[in-house]
Each structure stands twice: as structure tokens, then as C-alpha cells.
Amino acid sequence: MFTAPQVVGLLQELSFTHVVTIPDSTLGQWEDDLKACDEIEYVGVCREGEAWAVAAGLYVGGATPLVMIQCTGLFESGDSLRNALFDYRLPLFAVIGYRSFLNQSTLPGDTCLTFTEPILEAWGMDWVLYDQAENTSEQLEAIAAHCLRCREAGTPGWRWSPRGELSHATAWNAAGRIVERAPGNPWR
Known about the structure:
By secondary structure, this protein is an alpha/beta fold. It has 7 helices and 7 strands; from the N terminus they run H-E-H-E-H-E-H-H-E-H-E-H-E-E. The protein has a domain at 1-58 and 68-100 and 118-133 and 154-168: Rossmann fold. Strands 2-1-3-4-6-5-7 form a 7-stranded mixed sheet, sandwiched between helices. The N and C termini lie far apart (33 Å).
């Protein structure tokens, strides 16, 4: 798993001004460092749908926000996401934790593994799944490249973080095998 300083450093390099989040057992491990960073404003929200609305407002106000939530929160936040990304066509970027992806024995029968990718396909958004647990500079570079590609195209982008066990979950894992998807992308 990437360390909090690595994550904060990458977000600073990519000029994110805000991280809008509900920390879970994985993403929450970066919370203290994000809150301590002077260049990035940490914005905690109550529900994942609120994360998209807050990020939309920040973007309209001239900020560069990042939404950071778990896939179950993505399921919950569909209407807010639809408004921000499709109705208002805001090019927001997100890191989504993919619960149980790397360690499927943690939650046997977890339906996140059944529904996450089909739901993502249904949205027709540009997304990349980084499905390896190794922590390398190549992975950080791949994450940065995807974010910059989305920014240059003026489109939203999603970066899926496969997650392992709840107590030692792995998030923001990159490259090894990178699966890129952009079918039916309404932004093209």
C-alpha cells in the first residue's frame, strides 16, 4: 500500500486543491497526512452523494477537487454523480476503493465484486483499474498519467483502487496489469 506521504506528494504534484472524502479502513490511513498538508484542503462529508456535490461546487468555484470514496459509496451516490458529471459535464477525478478486490476471502460472497465493474460500464466513463498490490514509482506515474490524460481531454476520470482485507487493505494500487475502459463514453 502506498504511504500517506506518497499519496499526499502525488496529489500535490497533480495540483489537487481539495480532497472530498469519507475515509474507510483503507483510505482513512492517509487522513492525518491529508489534513496536515497546507496545499490540500481536506473536506470530510457525511454521504458519498454529498462528495460529488461538494466537489462540483468546488470545481465551479475554481478549485481542483478529488473525490475519494469506496465503491459501495459510488453505488449510493449515483444521482449526485449523474448531476455533476453528465448534466453539468464537470471533469471531476475520483479515486474509488474497490472493496475485497485483492482479498476476496475477507468477505466471501461480497457483491461489490459482482456489481462494481458493470455499474462502471453502465456509466460509460473513462476508468482505469490498477490491480496489483505492489508499491512502485511506476504505479504512481501511471496514476498521474491517467489523471493528466483526463484533464487534457476535459473529461472525468476514475481510478479504481483494489482493496484487500479490511485490516490491511490495499488502496491506490497501480499498474502491473492496467485495464483501461472507455466504452460509450459520452465525453468523446
